[in-house]
Amino acid sequence: MSLPTVVFLDRSTIPAHIDLPHLPFDHQWIEYDSTPAELTVERLQQADIVITNKVVLSEAELRHLPQLQLQLIAVCATGFNNVDIDFCQQHQIAVCNVQGYATRSVPEHVIAMLYALRRNLFGYHRDIAQGVWQKEQQFCFFTHPIGDVAGSTMGIVGSGALGQATAQLAKAIGMKVLFAERKGAMQCREGFLPFEQVLQYADVISLHCPLNQHTQDLIAAKELSLMKPSAILINTGRGGLVNESALVAALHNGTIAGAGVDVFTQEPADESNPLLANIHLPNLLLTPHVAWGSDSSIRQLLSILMANIQAFVEGKPKNRVV
Question: Rounded to two decimals, what is the model's pTM?
Answer without folding.
Answer: 0.89
